[in-house]
Amino acid sequence: MRRITFDIETEGDFRSNGDMSGLEVTVVGVHDSTTGTLTGFYKEELHKLWPVFESADIIVGYNSDHFDIPILNKYYAGDLTKIKSVDLLKEIKNVLGRRLKLDNIAEATLGRNKTGHGLDAVTWWKQGLKEKVRDYCLEDVRITDELYEYARKHGSLKYKDYEGIREIKLDTSQWEELDTGAGMTHTLPF
Questions:
Q1: 3-13 and 58-61: which strand pairing?
Q2: Which pLDDT tens digit goes with each residue over 88-100?
Q3: Positive or negative: CA dihedral 51, 10, 168, 90
Q4: Nearest partner of 121 among 38, 44, 53, 23, judged by Cα
Q5: Residue 117 falls within a domain, yes or no?
Q6: Beta bridge partners of 38
Q7: Which of 47, 100, 127, 145 gives a 20 to 30 Å CA spacing to 188?
Q8: Distance CA 90, CA 112 (A)
Q9: Does position 16 have pLDDT exceeding 60, yes or no?
Q10: What pLDDT shows up at residue 175?
Q11: Model pLDDT, residue 172
Q12: 51-90 burial, b for 16+ CB within 10 Å, e for fewer?
């Protein structure tokens, strides 16, 4: 099974009402489970990214169903929602009834923190620090992939609250089941 774990960084106008139409991709980071490689794609390289997504059996992200996929779909000729996906934040929210930051989950589960925050990446991009944004994005991809692996192995993730470290039980049994009913529509000429 080919799993692509991904994250995006953006710039632009994010309106408080949840309208993301003013956001533009700056970097997309991916981890390919078949090769173990981490690769960053700048906006002008997205044409190289689509074959990676189209060859995936599953895509994995954190807040990806709500944020990353809708924004990427603005650039993609097909529909990325047709690829089977696991959004770790969505899985957590389904159990807890609330959202948790990736940094909180990473610290409690993996014992390490993110290397920055999304707003840092926006600032770095404006300052012309494109490689720093790419590296930050790739580290978020690495963390997301490790959290996915941890959840698959242990059936849970952890978070920290005022009472200490707590566990979130997750049903991962169907995450890697192949979806034989819905095929990917390959709309790009590969």
A1: parallel
A2: 999 999 999 999 9
A3: negative
A4: 23
A5: yes
A6: 31
A7: 145
A8: 22
A9: no
A10: 95
A11: 96
A12: ebbbebbbbbbbbbbbbbbebbeeebebebeebbbbbbbb
Of the listed ranges 34-38, 71-75, 111-115, 184-188, the least confidently predicted one is 184-188
d(CA 158, CA 107): 9
Indicate the angle between helix axes 88-96 and 102-110, nearest 10 degrees: 90
Residue 178 lies in a domain: no
DSSP 150: H
Question: Residue 93's domain is classified under what CATH number?
Answer: 3.30.420.10
Residues 117-127: pLDDT tens digits?
778 888 999 99
Range of the domain at 35: 3-169
In degrees and rounded to multiples of 5, residue 41 shows phi and psi of -120, 125
Q: In this structure, which amino acid lies at residue 175?
A: W
Q: Is residue 84 part of a domain?
A: yes
Q: What is d(CA 104, CA 92) in angstroms, rounded to the nearest whole number?
A: 12
Q: How many domains does the chain have?
A: 1
Q: Are 54 and 184 in contact (CB under 8 A)?
A: yes
pLDDT digits (tens, 9 = 90+) for 54-75: 999 999 999 999 999 999 999 9
Helix axis angle for 130-154 and 118-126, nearest 10°, is 160
Of the pLDDT bands very low, low, confident and very high (cuts 50, 70, 90), residue 109 is: very high
The answer to whether residue 184 is domain-embedded is no
Tokens at 36, concatenated: 């173990």
